[in-house]
Amino acid sequence: DSGVTQTPKHLITATGQRVTLRCSPRSGDLSVYWYQQSLDQGLQFLIQYYNGEERAKGNILERFSAQQFPDLHSELNLSSLELGDSALYFCASSADRGGYEQYFGPGTRLTVT
Amino acid sequence: GNSVTQMEGPVTLSEEAFLTINCTYTATGYPSLFWYVQYPGEGLQLLLKATKADDKGSNKGFEATYRKETTSFHLEKGSVQVSDSAVYFCALSDRGGGADGLTFGKGTHLIIQP
Fold it and tell me: Which positions in chain A touch B99 (Cβ < 8 Å)?
């Protein structure tokens, strides 16, 4: 158990809908990262937050957004969903802004029908 | 940009065989290097890391040495077990490049047969 929790574990929704994925980092970790894992794209970094502020952006679509709250949990919002957004979404946390090891949650499997 | 290249497999070995999974990287700064393992239906677990050239990371019988001259970080284990069957990801974090998200290889599916 990494100490990173994610909810829900599974999510099934229809095209055009909007969903919110939630992540709670390890106790004491200030950085939260979001990743997407799909068969065709592999594991891709989406976005990082550090202590409530956006720190780095990766291959995140404009339809996707995230935020980190004062209690350090984070939410990833996915809107106008398309079939191609079906994937595993992982959250990770680390103690520092980067370079230190990241600890991953169990993931949320999103299926868009 | 940054990139990580690793053999994709599947790699099938017999129990107690020697394992090598190759990983090479391209980075603009001075990266830290990692190996993560993903068991079926689970998230990624950090297996080992190295933060500078010539560092050797090790854990659970696995080892990898950060080779700057060959830009490589190959994963090795002397005697694999059935329980080592999983997908292994090589990754880098390039703090010098300014972005802190990990760049992953495509993963190597390892199958160990009894």
Answer: 45, 56, 58, 98
